[in-house]
């Protein structure tokens, strides 16, 4: 049995290193790689992806895992957790042929570059053939995994273990109805009609300094991280002490880089806080789900960084950095501004209230694409109709509509729902934090964010994949996914802000 434990430890460490290599190649492609390097990069990533899959599905690993599974009671608690998690991953991976992994990897690597060009040129038709191919591969993948219920369940499970279409339809239907109602009430208010507009140019170099200061206050050292620029802000982990954060700077929108950096820093803190001492280089030292991962970014970006306590400390920093642009603004005016409800066509620019509607729109479209009720070529029209129905606005073109996100070009079907799940989980965690630390607002006002980081480390980060995301939320908050907690949070905040 000792030889089996040694073998699975070695294989897991090798897979960890290979995953880090893929992450580094992907980060480089999205930040600094020359455009013409795309096809060679597709070959590189697809090769390593195939090697990872082959290591995960090899017969020798399967035999050792099964041997350990048969003698599970003889293992200590740590080893039992690792074997249970590894066995699930191996069984799932063995359903997927290596040639499929290579085909999918190469297809999406090329499609990403085509998507970038299609978005830049506002030419959806250029992207359609690649999207159609990806959809067919996603359907093929769903058939191979073959989980019970809707075919989409097999795609969703990769990102949110244990979640189902049936559960999400119920939660999202409730969210959609409640948020549309709140939005309608806000639109009828005098406060909404008199919303402020922030004018002026905000020097990018000064924005960068604020973002660096923010990372410092959150306790993210440059020794274990980088902050770079990409078209679509993201965070990726190359290793346990190498987390890459990207943002984007807009000279007319200083809060875009600030909030995107805060968002990505939430992801980075989670990655840096995983249980590497106890479970390093094993499948357990990873995020429980993307929904839980997103709860960390949304927790920081929206609940903390859009709160009044936060701006009592940070607004003076902005005022000192941009004195001329903000000379007529006081703290209350600024607080109302950063929480403005202003329906947008762009998901990553959406306000806290309307953001979930963007996710529900994509969820509905993905279901239609997978079950064949929607054709890829019809997406611009369907997209625009749903935008008008939910948000009362319509994109001017496909670049700010159906082409705005990279996720479909990278084959991430089943990913989008995790954003809304993350919003719900974040509200539940904040609700519990206030119960346990009722004075946390005073800490935030002093610029002390480390108490929150410590609480999250104890209640979220340290579990890794010891259990599912919903089990972690249930252990911390006393219940699983509960959209009502999020809706109550939105009502308490926004109905008061807009005096309705």
Which architecture of the largest domain would the CATH scheme give at its second level? Orthogonal Bundle
Q: Structural class, from secondary structure content?
A: mainly alpha
CATH third-level topology of the largest domain: Neurolysin, domain 3
Mean pLDDT: 95
What's the number of structural domains? 2
What share of residues is helical? 55-70%
Cα shape: globular
User: Biggest β-sheet: count, sense, barrel?
Assistant: 3 strands, mixed
Name the assembly state.
single chain
Q: Strand-and-helix sequence, N→C?
A: HHHHHHHHHHEEEHHHHHHHHHHHH
Round the Cα radius of gyration to an integer and report it.
23 Å
**Strand content of the residues, in percent?**
under 5%
What can be said about this structure in brief?
With 500 residues, this protein is mainly α. It has helices spanning 2-31, 38-57, 59-70, 77-93, 98-121, 124-145, 152-156, 165-187, 190-193, 204-217, 254-272, 276-279, 290-304, 308-321, 331-338, 355-371, 379-391, 417-436, 440-445, 450-459, 469-477, 483-497, and strands at residues 225-229, 235-239, 242-247.
């Amino acid at each position: 049995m000792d030889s089996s434990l040694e073998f699975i430890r070695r294989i897991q460490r090798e897979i960890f290193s290979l995953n880090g290599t893929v992450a580094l190649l992907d980060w480089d492609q999205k930040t600094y790689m020359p455009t013409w390097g795309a096809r060679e990069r597709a070959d590189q990533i697809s090769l390593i992806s195939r090697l990872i899959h082959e290591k995960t599905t090899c017969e020798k690993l399967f035999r050792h895992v099964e041997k350990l599974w048969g003698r599970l009671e003889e293992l200590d608690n740590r080893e039992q957790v690792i074997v249970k998690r590894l066995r699930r991953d191996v069984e799932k991976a063995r359903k997927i042929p290596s040639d499929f992994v290579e085909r999918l990897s190469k297809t999406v690597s090329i499609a990403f570059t085509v998507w970038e060009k299609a978005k830049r040129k506002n030419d959806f038709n250029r992207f359609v053939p690649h999207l159609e191919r990806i959809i067919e591969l996603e359907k093929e993948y769903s058939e191979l995994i073959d989980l019970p219920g809707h075919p989409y369940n097999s795609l969703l499970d990769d990102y949110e273990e244990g979640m189902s279409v049936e559960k999400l339809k119920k939660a999202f239907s409730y969210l959609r109805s409640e948020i549309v109602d709140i939005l309608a009430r806000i639109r009828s208010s005098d406060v909404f009609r008199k919303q402020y507009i922030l004018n002026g140019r905000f020097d990018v170099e000064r924005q960068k300094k604020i973002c660096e200061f923010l990372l410092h206050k959150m306790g993210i050292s440059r020794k274990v991280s980088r902050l770079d620029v990409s078209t679509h802000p993201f965070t990726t982990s190359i290793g346990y002490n190498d987390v890459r954060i990207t943002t984007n700077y807009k000279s007319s929108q200083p809060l875009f880089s600030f909030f995107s950096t805060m968002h990505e820093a939430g992801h980075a803190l989670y990655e840096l806080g995983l249980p590497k001492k106890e479970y390093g280089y094993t499948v357990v030292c990873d995020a429980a789900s993307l929904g839980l991962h997103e709860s960390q970014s949304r927790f920081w970006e929206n609940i903390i960084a859009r709160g009044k306590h936060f701006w009592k400390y940070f607004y003076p920093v902005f005022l000192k950095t941009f004195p001329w642009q903000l000379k007529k603004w006081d703290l209350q005016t600024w607080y109302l501004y950063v929480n403005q409800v202003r329906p947008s066509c762009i998901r990553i620019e959406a306000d806290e209230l309307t953001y979930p509607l963007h996710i529900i729109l994509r969820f509905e479209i993905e279901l239609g694409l997978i079950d064949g009720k929607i054709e890829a070529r019809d997406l611009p029209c369907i997209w625009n109709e749903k935008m008008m129905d939910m948000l009362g606005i319509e994109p001017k073109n496909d670049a700010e509509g159906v082409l705005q996100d990279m996720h479909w070009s990278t084959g991430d079907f089943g990913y989008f729902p995790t954003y809304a799940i993350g919003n719900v989980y974040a509200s539940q965690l904040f609700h519990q934090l206030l119960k346990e630390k009722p004075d946390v607002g005073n800490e935030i006002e002093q610029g002390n964010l480390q108490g929150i980081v410590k609480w999250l480390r104890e209640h979220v980060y340290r579990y890794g994949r010891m259990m599912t995301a919903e089990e972690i939320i249930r252990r911390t908050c006393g219940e699983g996914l509960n959209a009502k907690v999020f809706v109550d949070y939105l009502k308490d905040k926004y109905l008061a802000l807009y005096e309705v």
